[in-house]
Amino acid sequence: MRPALARWLLPAMVFGLLLGAWSLVPGGSGVTDLPSPARVLRAFVDLLEVPPGERVPRLLAYAIASVFRVTWGFVLAATLAIPLGLLMGWYQRVFWALNPLVQILRPISPIAWIPVAILLVRNDDPRSILLIFVSTFFPIVVTTAAAVRAIPPVYVRAAANFGCRGSLLFRKVILPATLPQILTGLRIAAGVAWLVVVAAEMIAIDSGLGYLIIDARNAGGRYDRIVAAMLTIGAIGLALDTVLRRLERGDRVKWGQARG
Amino acid sequence: MAEARIKVSLRGVAKSFAERGKPKVDVLHAFDLDVLEGEIVCLLGPSGCGKTTLLDLCAGFERPDAGRITVDGQPVTGPDPRRVFVFQERGIFPWMTASENIAFGLRGKRRKRVEEVVERYIALMGLDGFGDAYPHELSGGMKQRVEVARALAVDPDILFMDEPFGSLDSLTRLKMRSELIRIWQAETRTILFVTHDVDESVQIGQRVVVMSERPARIRKIVDLSGLPHPRDLDSREYLAVRDELFAAVGVPTRI
Fold first, then answer.
1. Which domains does chain B have, with CATH numbers?
2. Chain A contacts of B135, Cβ < 8 Å?
């Protein structure tokens, strides 16, 4: 088989086999049984119908809610974490002051923050945004600071030699020198954010794709809807990752990839 | 020609490095050297003998533990765009195009002027058509040319060159040396050139300072001002100096 063909045909075959095996699983009629592919497809169609009195289909509304939360939490975290990471990486004293705090907060599972978020914030959206924020802020700070500390000294010396200092040094040398690693860190953080938003919505929030799963389970175990929600989560996660991966291939950051 | 002025002066310069848990390493010990204005001085010595440290000190990246380093009679207190370092490893910024790298030291100049300077050095270094290329798209020799161009673009008095052609293949290296001499003849600058390659030092140096193992002392200074450029690499005079240097470094001239 030619590689160009195999590249597409092989994964298609894997999907086909999986789907075939799935449709052979017995007992697809009861509500709480493992649903057949056909029933999941019907659940999709159901969820894409506009409910009476509403303007958008439920699946779309929930997907938008989840993506909205992840976007805000992630953008806020990145906006604060990148500058903080740059300062921590560059100024030894800032690093000494803040690194222990960051290191102790970082290993705490974002799920463990859910009770705190419930206590601190009343509304759904800010509550989940806070959870996304804490789950992405620390990894981005740590990646950025580590990237700054790993800048080859030759770049810093060259900059100093040409009289580049202060904020100019950050804009012209430190940020671009670390951008490839920062973008990789952002992509990983976005993946975490997408995992966390589903968990948060299952436990602490009354809308979104995570809520759709827990709601379907509580509504008499509608596993067809649960699987439909899971597939939607997978597809959106893949789309987020693809967009961020594309950023890593930009002209000004590609060099970071070439070196591995 | 008028009596040449002393451009860089080192007096009793000492430097040692101490890493935790390791014995202190004396790199330089009471080192004296004068470099004249417009001169190319090669520092020749074995790897790890302290040549690079010497250059770092002259450029102001490091401070001597003892002694005095002056440029134009002023003590060196830090790096300065009037004296530019050309690095051993690739010092050009991989996130900037060749043109942006060359223009790096020209901040605050009028855009028109920056464009002129960049254009001039792109042409001078034979980089035509590669101004918008990123370093990872350039060959090793081209990257090194961009680095030299970036240094020359700020019109420095002094170039500190740390084995700048060390990682290039031998043909490119030979070509880069003759280009360096061509540029030096066109716009005279003081050049302090570190190398461990005897041939390189004889080809470009006006004086070659042969250094000992650590702590580096001057073993011998060979004056090549009697061999004007372009140098004939087959001439008797050239070969005599080359043999003298090989003997000073302690390498056999026959295998």
1. 1-82+160-255 (3.40.50.300), 90-155 (no CATH)
2. 255
Whether the model pTM is above 0.80: yes
Q: Within a domain: residue A25? A: no
Tens of pLDDT along chain B (255 residues) come to: 456 789 999 999 999 888 777 888 888 888 899 999 999 999 998 877 888 899 999 999 999 999 999 999 999 999 999 999 998 767 899 999 999 999 999 988 899 999 999 999 898 888 999 999 999 999 888 998 899 999 989 989 999 999 988 878 888 888 888 888 988 888 888 999 999 888 899 999 999 999 888 888 888 898 888 888 888 888 888 888 888 888 888 776 666
Residue B195, SS3 per DSSP: strand
DSSP structure string for A16-56: HHHHHHHHHSS--SSTTSPPPHHHHHHHHHHHTSPPTT-SS
Question: B130 with B98: CB under 8 angstroms?
Answer: yes
Angle at which helix A223-247 crosses helix A37-47, to 10 degrees, equals 80
The tokens describing B234, both together, are: 């087959």
pLDDT tens for B165-223 read 887 888 888 888 888 898 888 888 899 999 988 889 999 999 999 988 888 888 889 88
ipTM over 0.85? The verdict is yes
Residues of A in contact with B82 (CB under 8 A): none
Count, in order, helices (H) and strands (E) of chain A: 12, 0
CA–CA gap between residue A75 and residue A63 (Å, rounded): 18
Spacing of C-alpha A2 from chain mean position: 35
Q: Which residues contact B101 (CB under 8 A, 6 or more apart)?
A: B92, B93, B135, B146, B147, B149, B150
Using CA atoms, how far residue A206 sits from A25, A62, A209, B146, in Å, is 33, 10, 10, 59
User: Does B87 reach chain A within 8 Å, measured CB to CB?
Assistant: yes
Determine which helix (DSSP H) or strand (DSSP E) holds A161, and give its type and residue range: helix A153-161
Structural domain harbouring A130: 36-48+58-251
* A84-102 exposure pattern, b = at least 16 Cβ within 10 A, e = fewer: bbbbbbbeeeebeebeeeb
The tally of domains found in chain A comes to: 1
Please check whether residue B230 touches A, CB under 8 A: no
Answer whether A71's CB lies under 8 Å from A136's CB.
Answer: no
For an interface test with A, which of B57, B93, B134, B137 has the most A Cβ atoms less than 10 Å from its Cβ? B93
Task: Report yes or no on A19 lying in a domain.
Answer: no
Closest Cα in chain B, distance from residue A227 (Å) = 44
- Backbone torsions φ then ψ of B132, nearest 5 degrees: -95, 5
Q: What is the CATH number of the domain that holds A196?
A: 1.10.3720.10
Residue A9 maps to a domain: no
